[in-house]
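Q: Structure for this?
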Amino acid sequence: MATLTIPEAIPSPAEDCEQLRKAFKGWGTNENLIISILAHRNADQRRAIRRAYAEIYGEELLRSLGDETTGDFEMVVLLWTMDPAERDAWLANEAVRKWKPSNHVLIEIACARTSVELFAVRQAYHATYKRSLEEDVGAHTTGDFRKLLVPLVSSYRYEGAEVNVALAKSEAKMLHEQISEKAYNHEDLIRILTTRSKAQLTATFNHYNNEFGNPINKDLKSDPKDEFLAALRAIIRCICCPERYFEKVIRLAISRVGTEENALTRVIVTRAEVDLKVIKDAYYKRNSKTMDRAIAHDTVGHYEDMLLALLGHENA
Amino acid sequence: MATLTIPEAIPSPAEDCEQLRKAFKGWGTNENLIISILAHRNADQRRAIRRAYAEIYGEELLRSLGDETTGDFEMVVLLWTMDPAERDAWLANEAVRKWKPSNHVLIEIACARTSVELFAVRQAYHATYKRSLEEDVGAHTTGDFRKLLVPLVSSYRYEGAEVNVALAKSEAKMLHEQISEKAYNHEDLIRILTTRSKAQLTATFNHYNNEFGNPINKDLKSDPKDEFLAALRAIIRCICCPERYFEKVIRLAISRVGTEENALTRVIVTRAEVDLKVIKDAYYKRNSKTMDRAIAHDTVGHYEDMLLALLGHENA
């Protein structure tokens, strides 16, 4: 359910490098050529291109791309070209360094990736920043957010489909009691959200809804301005229905006065190879217009072209 | 600095299996034959033997060993034959299910392994128990111990040698303040111990000693009966001087009235391929007698033979 489109006959990495080099040459940059190559290669292919580029020209492709592009287009091209784990490590580091409670990027990376992918992010974080992700999260956050985010980014959730029904019932009850008492930072609530498998949590939330009459996220909206509650809701959405979580991020990024390009870029590049088609469907269902049209309306130039290419537009 | 000895010419896994099968055959078991093979094969070789055994005889080697051996000898042979990560997952699960504050096995596994090894334990835990290690630790422990142990077993510490000296100073000061105020469960103290790299922590503890006049572990001994303090000291020893930590486990296991075989077995099998020689040196330094002699004095029969074989006795 990716949107990425790849041509049937793919040039060799060396040929792609040659074309990219052409795009960088002379006055100005041929952005369309860059898009026509990179926006139509998967992660393995982009990795091979980066390796070949470094070998042939003795330069890092990311550096050349950075030199030759600017603004939002630069950001989307660089992030897209990175390895998924390397990109997430970069996004996590940005989020940690400029951390504020309303920033949900760490939650997204911790909860809307597989356990193995999250661990790969932690490895990439070591390699790039010479520290551990949980170390930086622990050092840059405080209070309840720290209690929540450190175990969240350290988790290695079991990914099997097994569900313990009795446990789902007892933990749904536990969550309901704590939410009723507004004990949102209760250590059991945090423990359940940060350690249980996604299958187990989904069963727990279903039981919560059946038994107590409301979806858990509705009960976690008692104060719409509380940022800790918003973080808890984001965790639950990333775990149970990531496509709806991402749909909302894109909807809000577009609907703001002045589009939030960083959020838009982040979601498109991180999901184009994963589930962007499903997110597009969720967007259409929620907004009665296509995401592609909405994005095209709110963005311009090569940035728009690149996003549309990643959204699956063949001629972009 | 392992003690494991391996013959120069090693039989093929199939030949080893044939000999093991012979050892199991007929009335009684030939324990010496089992020891002469398994106690002189490294982890890769034992893995190959298990694979070959399952293929040739359609049975699990661990099951056959369990059927043919008993008591402490059974325990040491089974644990030794397991893969290191599988063994640690088993030890961690035992420790979690029967958890009590004085049990330091989780600390040992979280702190006296490399980051990659600890992650392999978490993977093996998934595969065996269909849950995550941190999930079970969170569900079976409570209070301050939970606050300490969940991040400890979830950690993926950076392993480079880089040290931030300013950080070591400021965190040594922070630790000193919290310890002076007996705020042993302070979230910063737990954060520092559970997320910083071992190189960074060693620098922090050195600075603590230089600046405040005592090794940190001495200041953490204000109440020798406090089990939370004992856990903190175990963490620090496992990080800074694992050989002295393990020396003490063995010393106490032997010196008790009635040897604590489980602890003795655990340390010998988990360290024989790693650093048991260094632990033996530490033991001699501390007790003015060899560990081999002390162990031989306190154990009997095939159990003794197996331990001595793992301690490097050629003729065992």
